[in-house]
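Milestone M4 deliverable, item 7.
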Amino acid sequence: MKVLFVFSFSYNEYLADCIYHGLIDSGVDVYETHYPGYMMSDYEEQSGQELRGLYGRGFTLYGRMNHKPQIDPPHVIIDKIRSKFYDVIIYGCVYTHFMICDRQCLDYLDEVRSHYPRSKVHFVDGSDDITHFSQEYNLDQYGIVWKRELTDYVYGNPISFAIPEGILRTTSTKKEEIFPSKIKSPIPGFHSDPKKYTFDNEKEYYDAYASAFYGFTCKKMGWDCMRHYEILANRTIPYFYDLENCPGTILTDFPKYMVLETNKYSWKGQIPSDYEDYNEYLFSYTKKNLTTKKLVSRFF
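Output delivered:
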């Protein structure tokens, strides 16, 4: 399976980066249009920049890839598109975002739409905005559209973030507190020391979740948030504030029903007698359904 992954990698973008990670982690034969700098294990050495300077402190997705990217010159990519060398083409980011306009990458679109059937082309919109950026460019005519904050099924298919398989905590950690006191709550009415908000060390961040029974999470700019998956990956149950109001077209792979059940206890800071059963179910669900490998399987 040869995949052309069209994305600039000029600024980290969670959904595009989740997909790219899943492709590489799944052993897919990926051809990049641009160098995936911040995804690579030698990013800091090659760029002189720290991963911590990236959005999300560079945790979870970044600086983990050790493969050799396959980047051809533009004229070679065009020739390969014309000869249908690639089996599938994935556009990792089709939206513009505030002042960060170079996130959007629609390179080679004229060639792609002239030589590939709609079923072999995918356009991904990972924006927090409910605006259908794909619709503005009529991309539905040329490929399958995937939208993270999807409001209806008329234009696009639902898609969400995912967690790298290697992040999943292999053993349970002793629970020492109800909520992690070292992590500031993003939820109205739940407070912790704001001086303990920023982590420079990924392991300490994960350990803070793992040692608590529950982890705070909620809608931010959009309903989908990497925090949801980081909590689950560390064998902790998320307290997802306001989840009952999440549209049915968003977070369609997320275990909403079970988290709503556990919310009955978590918002009160209660530990039910069957907490371990709930927690094991959610962790197993995450392992089976919410990894980056599982995410990319839908494109094939």
